[in-house]
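Field notebook, page 279. I keep forgetting to write these up properly, so this time I am using the form the group agreed on. The chain and the ligand, flavin-adenine dinucleotide, are recorded exactly as supplied. Prediction of the bound pose follows.
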Amino acid sequence: MLDFHTAASRMRTVKLLSVTAETPTVKSFAFVDELCAKGEPGQFVMVWIPGVDEVPMSLSTLDPEESLAAVAVKRVGEATQALHNMKTGEVIGVRGPFGSNYTISKASKVMIVGGGTGLASLAPLAERLVKEATEVIFLMGAETKSELLFHERVESLLSESRGQLIATTEDGSFGMKGLVTMLAEKLFKKEGGFSMVYTCGPERMMQKMFFLAAKFSVPLEASLERFMRCAIGLCGTCVIGKYRVCQSGPVFRDRQLHEVEDEFGLWRRGFDGTKIKIK
Ligand SMILES: Cc1cc2nc3c(=O)[nH]c(=O)nc-3n(C[C@H](O)[C@H](O)[C@H](O)COP(=O)(O)OP(=O)(O)OC[C@H]3O[C@@H](n4cnc5c(N)ncnc54)[C@H](O)[C@@H]3O)c2cc1C
């Protein structure tokens, strides 16, 4: 019998069990796959859209008892548009789970700061943390109300635990008006005692959280996105400084981010290796 990592790196074809519109631009795709369902919050899979492309996606649902997994996909280009056109019952391919995962803090108080599709990996993280009796202060940001991904899911989770969800929107259509990082800074000043900050979303947002966490001496983990082809450390497309995001990441500790500070939040690489400024 194959060990977990060898089995995980092989492509499996799976039927889409459900396709759910989460926001005007994001849909969830659920499927049955024992290996993906055994993944950890923060890990990703390579999703093959037949005839189109293979793209990395965070695991947004992890249900090992039902062998159920899902990804939440934002429509941004060719592959994600093709996936959005697919229906329940159609077939995709999956490889993984790959990469590092978030460290699970037990019986403590943590801050989770997410935006955009970064919330795809943070929702299952919150679900795991509350099982460990950890108090979760979840800060969720979006440009506008309709783009707050998994708001109801996280709200209902935290209403049944010691946690709290606070949303921010840039246009003020829901929650507090402004950037989620401004709220994070206020909370750091007002209340202490955070044992960890987890963040995933636009890289400039994560960079700001990296500086804030350092200022208030709170450990941080951030999940990075880079172009990826192989996901097994061979192609080098996802390189940041001395790291390959598919192998050492996507979840990085603050000490690792210090080592790549001249790239983190500033530069990423295109498929041909050229440096592209992060806006
Ligand atoms: C570890 C990891 C986890 C991810 N998780 C999710 C997720 O949960 N949900 C989700 O919607 N997306 C996620 N992504 C991003 C996703 O892989 C890309 O959006 C997707 O590959 C775009 O494919 P496309 O053919 O539709 O777009 P393309 O036509 O390839 O590109 C469209 C636009 O998106 C940008 N883009 C494409 N790929 C990336 C990338 N990897 N990083 C940064 N910008 C990119 C391009 O520069 C371009 O502007 C993740 C990426 C990584 C590396």
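OBSERVATIONS:
- Residues 44, 53, 55-58, 71-74, 76-80, 117, 120, 225-228, 250 surround flavin-adenine dinucleotide (CB under 6 Å).
- The mean pLDDT is 95.
FOLLOW-UP: compare against the apo run.
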